[in-house]
Amino acid sequence: MHSAVQHVAKPWYKEPWPWLLMLGPALAVVGCAITIKLALDNFSDEPIYDGGVKRGLKVERDTGYKPGLAQPPKKSSVGEVR
After folding, report:
1. How many CB atoms lie within 10 A of CB 18?
2. N or C: which end of the chain has fewer CB within 10 A?
3. Residue 61 belongs to what H/E stretch?
4. Assessment of whether the complete model's pTM goes beyond 0.70
């Protein structure tokens, strides 16, 4: 006699493989969001000292650069910014 064994398939969300395959891209999205947040929090208001002008997101060299207007802060002999 031949007995018929039926295999009942579980729904996809109860299988471990789809979750394992989605883990890599999900971690990349989280890492990208963290990187953007850190970049905007720590480096978005940096002054430009090399004669450039910031216009929106674009930084261009200013042709009318006057050296006395935007100078970097003076450093003391110990290296601390005053």
Report:
1. 11
2. N
3. strand 58-61
4. no
